[in-house]
Specification:
By secondary structure, this protein is of the alpha/beta class. The chain contains 10 helices and 12 strands.
Amino acid sequence: MTDMSEPSSQATGELLKIRGLSKAFPLTKGFLEQLHFEGGRLVRRRESVKAINGVDLDVIRGEALCVVGESGCGKSTVARVVMGLLEPTAGSIQYDGKRIDNLPPERLLPYRRKMQMIFQNPYASLNPRLTVKQTLEEPMRFHNPVIGNGELKDKVRDVMDSVGVDPSWRDRFPHEFSGGQRQRISIARALMVDPEFIVADEPIAALDVSIQAQVVNLMEELQEELGLTYLFISHDLSMIRHISDRVAVMYLGKMMELAESNQLYTKPLHPYTQALLS
């Protein structure tokens, strides 16, 4: 990995610190698949592939850090491991100075409220059986079960307003909305519990080009208004240039280069980054 100097803002606080993070997926899942004859003996061999391999990464409070790379480089796996959707094979994850990758589910709950995720496909990430109102109420009722109906109704209205979705649409179902509107609802769902850190995994990849800029602009506005910290996953180098403070480049499960956004786009140091930009 090309070593770039860390931003001075790091001194004010790393929100997320990843060290030596690896994730391997088994190729032979069943016991019988692991048995082989070698030299006349029956041996058991477990085969796996490393999606990410020894990733080190810091996310500074208040910044938008974008992880880029080609499909299959491991960037989405990093996002899912950070959010606890996948267990790491090795390494550690610290959030606000506390290690969280080894916490039991009940002790992880407070962090799940602070850390939210926006998924790539708004057509798949929203439950088609739930109205917008039910979709937005669900995380709030889970994390704050004692909240009153009036307070919850006000919260839903305010959050819908903040993402540019008409509050009068709260009784509609996802199939009644366009892709851009669905992604706004997905963003609203993430904001319902007042998070401070959002992982956005290719949030504009499934949208029309004409809608992508609107969603990116919305995320920029919300970051400034709410003081959010983003870990943005994407393969679209042209789009993330407008939202990122720093960019990390991944290739085959490893970090190749990490730099300030302007510096990476004007003077990329690693040959893979140069090839990716070209």
